[in-house]
Amino acid sequence: MKKMAKLAAVLMAAAFTTNTLAADITLKLAHTWPKGFPLFATSVDEYAKLVNEMSDGKIEILVDSRNKHKAAFGIFDFVKSGQYDIGQSASYYYGGKEPDALFFTTMPFGMTAIEQTAWFYEGGGLELANEVYAKHGMEVMLALNTGQQMGGWFRKEINSVADLKGLKMRIPGFGGKVMAKVGAVPTNLPPGELYQALERGTIDALEWVGPSLDLRMGFHKVAPYYYTGWHEPGAELMFFFNKKKIDSLPAWAQSVLRNAAKLTGYKASTQTFHASLENWATIKAEYPNVKVKDFPKEVIQALKKANAELIAEEAKRGGLTQRIVESQAAYLKKARAWTQIGDQSYLNNIAK
Ligand code: CA
Fold first, then answer.
1. What contacts 252, CB < 8 A, 6 or more positions away?
2. How far apart are CA 59 and CA 23, in angstroms?
3. How many angstroms separate the alpha carbon of residue 262 from the centre of ligand 1?
4. Domain spans of the chain?
5. How far is the CA of 149 from the centre of ligand 1 (A)?
6. How far apart are the CA of 187 and the centre of ligand 1, in A?
7. Distance 121 CA to ligand 1 centre (A)
8. Which residues surround ligand 1, an ion (CB under 5 A)?
9. How many CA atoms does the CB half-sphere of 188 hold within 13 Å?
10. Distance 148 CA to ligand 1 centre (A)
11. How far is the CA of 58 from the centre of ligand 1 (A)?
């Protein structure tokens, strides 16, 4: 019996060794979100699984959440330095490291999700993003589009531009810059800190995503006014690849990593749309105290003016920045003409 047990132990050790060596390529990935965070983090877990499956077990991706690496907004540096091979986060969190990173998540008064996805894939957007990220030794791909985001949760009603003066709001990216220009005090906080900040009054308002992810955060318990959107009409998360690392891999592995990212981006965007409609139905049915509001015309016009001025200022940097601004403006104009005669006319027609 003793001999048998010894043999079994040897066999098990051998199996374990074989198993850990099964992957030819092991890559490390870090994302911004808490472990298991719906959609934003779970889609990354699905990506790792898909890559493993598509590569017949030859590529293994080890996923670290912010619970492990402790730096929600450290993804840019992690991947740039090669500490991690892959990242997943939002480009606009890194405007302080690379000003042009602000353009590749979503823009206030800009393209809707489908318009922007078309810009990225067919209108030269991804090439422009990769020109920017190549300067930092990275390559990016689309990871998940949230679709239309809500304008945020406010403790008090907003009736005029004066109500925005001094308002402390969590709002990242270009939307935050616009808010600052009309007198608000924008800040960025990672998702894990949002509820407490709003509850304690450290901030007066926040935007997070929309029904897909807001409901579980409980914001409706402390801020009853839920405003419709203007600042993030289609926010895109991205995969960041360390360029040197991905280019060093065999062609088949590069193809798996890139194509699995594409599939994940598509699936995760669909899942997010689905979560939005389900949760919106829940809000309507179960939370009658949530007051859904549009910002007054005066406020929207002030925000629009501030946005246009800020974009014009950015474009003055010339070169690549100017090319990005011009590319987005031209694509938006053309895409919107079709959206208006297509989707918008359809919705108008059937509402008659
Ligand atoms: Ca947001």
1. 55
2. 5
3. 22
4. 21-145+234-275
5. 6
6. 12
7. 22
8. 149, 207, 232
9. 14
10. 9
11. 36
Tell me the sheet residues that pair with 87. 30, 240
Please provide residue 210's backbone torsions phi and psi, each rounded to the nearest 5 degrees.
Answer: 170, -170
56 Cα: distance to centroid of ligand 1 (angstroms): 36
The burial class, CB within 10 Å (0-12 / 13-18 / 19+), for 334 is middle
Question: 207 alpha carbon to ligand 1 midpoint, in Å?
Answer: 5
Distances from the Cα of 255 to the Cαs of 87, 250, 258, 261, 279, in angstroms?
A: 17, 9, 5, 10, 36
Question: What is the per-residue pLDDT across 33-69, written as a single tens digit (0 to 9) for each?
Answer: 999 999 999 999 999 999 999 999 999 999 999 999 9
Q: What is the pLDDT of residues 106-150, one digit of tens each?
A: 999 999 999 999 999 999 999 999 999 999 999 999 999 999 999
With a threshold of 0.90, does the pTM exceed it?
A: yes
CA of 105 to the centre of ligand 1 (A): 10
Q: Under a CB-based contact definition with an 8 Å cutoff, are residues 100 and 132 in contact?
A: yes
**Distance (Å) from CA 232 to ligand 1 centroid:** 6
CATH of range 21-145+234-275; options 3.40.190.170, 3.30.465.60, 3.40.50.300, 2.60.120.10: 3.40.190.170
